[in-house]
Amino acid sequence: MTTIPLNDLQRMYAAYGDKLDQTALDVLRSGWWLNGPRNKAFCEAFAGYLGVGHFIGLANGTDALEIVLRVLLEKALRSGSVEQTATRTADAYEVITVANAGGYTSTACYLVGCTPVYADIEPESQLLSIPSAVAALSGKTVAVVATHLYGGLIDVPALRRAMNDAGYAHVPIVEDCAQAHGLKGASGTAGTFGDIATFSFYPTKNLGALGDGGGVATSDADLNGSVRRLQQYGWGDKYNIVAAGGRNSRLDELQAAFLSVLLSDLDSSNARRVSVLDAYEKAAPVGLQIVRSRIGTVAHLAVIQTGHREQLKEYLKTHGVATDIHYPVLDCDQPGWGDRPKRIGPSGLDVSRVSVNRILTLPCFPTMTEEEVARVCNALSAFTPR
């Protein structure tokens, strides 16, 4: 029996191979492999697709988070919107995030010199709990990162209203859209609700490159300018460094060209993913709960919750269904960060700590066959915990 994989990028290449081959050849023959017309074309097209004023292509999604947090920290310090301290220690400034999203925001916090503050999540969607996030706000807060985990939509407008009502209208919201390309709901598209948004184009994303890539979206001209400076050494113009904290982070011409090819089918690919998630939800018996945001999803991952995870994992393996766990360790419990500053918000992490032992990821990708989807559904529907 052939195992159904979690994803299969060879199938993606089989579907787009002719276009990708020709695209690669065109780029290679052009002799322009960085900072060229294909990067410009993709960034303009993706900004238009999202409905934002600016999109900046970067080397990867973690660079995007790091650069954005650095920009927002410097802005907060200049404006005086965070409490000033005599020394800029690592625990002086805070970023509110969740602990269940794979460590990426926490990594960026530590690179910038901010303390991650962990808010709890909602049980059904596994997304940031708005009341928990608001409770964690303080005079040290530089930003709130709203991660659209698993391709599920956070109600960012509701988060903004709650923060404003609590007296934190000055604190920016960063949308982490690494798993949310093309996600629509709440009268908009993910990446347009907050002050600024970050994206990853890792190959398995809903819009994935054939290598690394990432970027930042915003309609704020000042934030756009600051991100562009820091992505290129802090240059104001060539070789003239006007801002500290810069680096070299670029989306190359080849990856930008590949992404332009795949962007045209993003909506249809997302629809296929959602149809797979719908089928799983219909097939899941009592006791198996599909993780889903009810205000919008693009089903980046199909995640199920169960009180019998190890048993279900072994059962699916015997039925030829691959599984994984996204993510098995909460950020606040990562052993490598044991001595790093961190804070758990006042509402605690009760839901996060229960959920981390209940989640299991099922196959979900656009090129799954109907027979594969039916096999997973049949296995799910027949599962009976011992």
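^ that was protein a. below is b, sequence first then the tokens
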Amino acid sequence: MRKIIAAALSILVGITGLTACEKTATPTATSTPTTTVTSPTELPLHDDSKHDSTVAQTQEVIDLEQFITSKLTGEYGVYTNFIETDQSAEAASGHEVLSESASLRMLAAVRSGQQERFAEQWNLAKQIFDMNSGFSYRYSPKQQKLYPLNAAVDDLRMIRALYEAGEKFGDNRYTAEADKYGERFYDYNVKDENLYDFYDMEYSSTNTFVTLCYINLGTLRKLSIPSQFSKKLTNDMNVILEDGYLSDEFPFYETRFNYETGKYSSENINTVESLLSILALAEVDQEKSTSIDFIKKLVEAGTLYGQYSREGKPLNDIRSTAIYAITAMIGAEIGDESLHHKSIERMNEFRVTDVASPLYGGFGDVASGQAYSFDNLMALLAYVY
């Protein structure tokens, strides 16, 4: 059994890319911000409680939607990258599609009130990714390969989008589907009330740990499971996430928690991961003020970088669209307008504003032609959050 799990873990390592919450091949350096920096002409409205306000369709949103729909989307969904590959690498690349992208697209459609787009995206996601044990994290059209693993973070995001769609659009069918897929998720990705990163359908096994940015507390609380199991699951995951806090001096979070050893581990601290952990805590009103103050300071200075040592020393000077998109969501979630607005401004520094570029309206590196699904979909979600 250990050999089987080790084999599955080797597959997981291949899918993680830069971070465990961003399962794509990631460029070694992010693009330089464009020289033309634009601010939103009208920021999206935000309802702190239910995300059910009508979202203003800014020019930024319109241009980004157009780029994603016309340039970054094909028959099977949103491309992992604008530039095609042979789709044979360990990490997803080229015009492969990810359940991550589908779930982000679904959530953005709900938050912006696009009922038809949501239905279209959900139907496509089921068609492409649905397996007996969960949603495959990855499909390669060229290889005609559906990978037999799910990713808990993406399954939970899909379930979350379904619950929100049921409420937003007044359609109980979505709520019923959320309940159904939530029960399946619990059956395969939870053991002894512990959440695991993935379930490998081929080997009928999970890994031995949970990546902290996979712990979506708000969605776990919504799962349609018996109350006694729900309470223990959410309480245990809450403790694991909160206890992963590093320090007041560097108020980010550990990478993973191993159930066999009872210990946390982090080689280095990836900013996207810690920000998603902070966002998950903010969604249940448990964010730490030290984390928010730290983020605000670095967003204001424009120096929130991609990776740090455990002591808080920057290990690179890479800034990215996704980083500022997530801080914008955190600001919106906690009702901090200054953090929200400044993060959107920082994020917009990476918008492609050259109308002659094939990447116009999106977020990417004009020089190399690289434009990643994660950056663009996180930016779209930040606009409509």
